[in-house]
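Lab notebook page, bench 4
Experiment: in silico fold of construct C2
Operator: M.H.
Input chain length: 509 residues
Purpose: comparison with the prior construct
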Amino acid sequence: MKYLSLENTRLDGRYDIHTHLGRGSYAEIYVARDVLASPQSPHSQVVIKALNVFLQNDLDLDLERTLVENFQNEAVALDRVRHPNIISRLGHGTARDLRGTVFHYLALEYLSGGDLAKACREKSLTLKQALFYIEQVCAGLGFAHKNDIIHRDIKPQNLLLTTDKKTVKIADFGVARISHSDAPITRVGTNIYAPPEHSPMLSGQTGLLNSPKLTPAADIYSLAKTAYVLITGESPRYFANQPISELPFAMRHEIWASELVEVLQKATQSDSAKRHQDVIEFWQDLSRLKRFCDEDSGKLAAHVSASSLYAIPQPHVAKGYTPLAPQKPKFDTSRKLKINPNLLPGENPSPVVKLGANETVPAPRPQPTEFVFEPSDNQENQAQFQSKSKSNRSFVKTFAIFGILLFLFAGALFATQYLIRSRNFFPTITSSFKTQTGIANADVNLRSQPTAAVDNRIGLVTKNSRLKIVNEKNNWYEIEIIENGRPPQNQEDAARGWVFGKYVTLDNN
């Protein structure tokens, strides 16, 4: 077993790694500072998750390839389920540590508020606080299921809090799977939270399962066991691999106890077909407990609307969230990191730089002459190197010619523009547009550009919404929503964008 040498280094000229958080079965976790981010940015600190195939003592080429594929699948899953209550991927890369070992890494957002397991240990949550966090988890998990991703390891340790403890995000999609995959179910998860069909203790007993296919009901089982911890403050260890049938003795007298047991018992049935089949159904049952959250007297709240009890779980958005994902990673799974850790053929992974007292810039990347070629014959090595050098010179020459042509073309365009303006070939057009207000006369899609393309929809303007028109182009209005005609169904919808003019009735000024 060989650990990566990354502490007190700068990774890819951007991430200063200072703190080692821990290791899993295939990855090492570090906290780093992003030197390119503003100190006031919520992402000035990040988590570096570095794939280390050498943590596996019995590593072979097939296992190595599988680990790299799983690592890339985790990144793809995170981008596919980008949501305010799911941890975001900020970047990725391939580099070499101080010993020359090549590794892949993901940069994830850093949540300094700790996990919900720690929060429960430090202080018991009230029923209202627990439901507040559970609703956010339901919102994120429901979005993941909607996009065909099943987490498979929901537990308090994988639910992380922001610094202000107001937002919770689901982390660790390392064993996530696509729900419609035909691959056999593997044994994953933590025993006391894993459903029977995924429990390590039931390995070899798959013939006893009534529903061997992977479904969202597996995550709902784990979520219910997690809800038990958040509400009661105690581990569900006694109910490992069986339904929750009662609460701790100290809570059995609560007026909501029997109703909570009923919900959790259904969600943790051994037969997945008898559980809640989607997260919204689970939350609608559990949210009925909100009526017991009158903090002043502990009695039933007198005025609770039906919509607040049975609503779709709503996300909680923290500062710095964006739905836009970074460039998709493509880690090479056909190359052998194990055979020659100093070399990925055809690639030049950036080495980490040891941070000294006055270290402010990364060291230059190594030249190709520093690489060690695999063939043992010196003449063959020399021929390969000369061939690569010749290819590089040819590429530089082609690139230089392209640059000169591009420069000449840009100069010609500039000269043409100057000539047109100096000769007054076209009259100057001045805009007489002034800010107006209006009202939406129908439900209409809000778009990022003044076109009806399917992929530029960013929200919904509801009928009778009050609007401010800030721009006009080709019968399209760029608007800001002043007041919604009715409450928005999706809190992530944008409040500014383009709508076609016929759907806006302008006010008479």
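Observations: Residues 443 and 462 are 4 Å apart (CA to CA). The first strand starts at residue 9 and ends at 11.
Next step: discuss at group meeting.
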